[in-house]
Structure formats: C-alpha cells, structure tokens
Amino acid sequence: MADRVDPAARVYAKALHEAAGEAGRVQEADRDLKALVAALGESPVVLRALVNPALPREGKRRILVGLLQGADPLARNAVLVLAEHGRLSLLVDLQVAYADLAADDDQILPVEVTTAVALEQKELDALQERISTAVGRRAEVTATVDPALIGGLVLRARNVLVDASVKRRLEELRRALIHTPLPVGSEA
Question: Helix, strand or coil for residue 141?
C-alpha cells in the first residue's frame, strides 16, 4: 500500500493529482494509470524493455505512447515525464500514491484484509460495513488468502496494521517463553 511508496513517486503523484483536480479529470487519470500498470504486469516482455538501460529513452517513449494511446493526456504526460527523467522504476509507486489521493477525494479508505481461508462475500460485505462505520469513510476492501496465518486476520489501511492472526499470537507466545527467565534450583 501507500506506506511503502517511494517519496519521489509521491511528488509526481501529487503534481499529477493537482493538475487533474484543476482539470476535473482525477478519476480518468486514476483509471488510465491503473490500466497501464495492469497492462505492464501482463506483458513481461514490454516491461523488460522499459526497464532495460540499453534501450534509449526515445525507444521507451515510443513504447509508452503506443500503450497510452487514448489515455487521459495528463496521465500520459506524467508517465512520459518519468520516462524522460529515467524514473520509470517509480511508475507502480506513482500509480499507488495517485490512487490514494484519488480515493481521498472520494472519501474512500482502501483496506487490505488477509485471512487464512477465503472469506465469503457476505463476510466481506459485513467487514466492509463495520470498517466504514468505524472510520466514517467508505471502505474498499481487498481480500487475500495466506494459509500461514493459521486463523484470524490481518488488516492494513494506510499506515495502520492490525494483526489479529493466530500466527502472530503464537509468535508472541514463543517470544515470551524464550525471554522469560525461569527459576533455577531452589527458586522453583
């Protein structure tokens, strides 16, 4: 999430957000950045070409112009600025930071929930409703499964992590047993 975003990407995201806000195109830029990142994730060949230092910037620019055909001009220009300055490695962080700024505009709180088993849709809806009520914003819950948690759940929203997993509780118990001095000899 956004707490792991490169600070330089935040600067680019803020500049883009301000320009898109003035133009009334915040959601369009958000949609197009997400689409670009998704497209690059599905095309490892193109991604490798864009991060290849041997490929000249003009070649990278041509690839990006092709990928961003029909995209919002502000989003396209922001990505091209990254390419011109050799900062394409910030693209995913830019998209994440920008999505957070756009969500703020809409009073949306993105929340990641990780559980040991998949949650049913009604459980996700109930969790989303409880979080929304608690924070006074509409929660947008993304669920993932990690069997290593054993049970419980882990919530991550912005810079807040709530770990109510069995794995964490067992780890705390293990640490307590290791660090608790045991009585020796006649003290027992």
Answer: strand
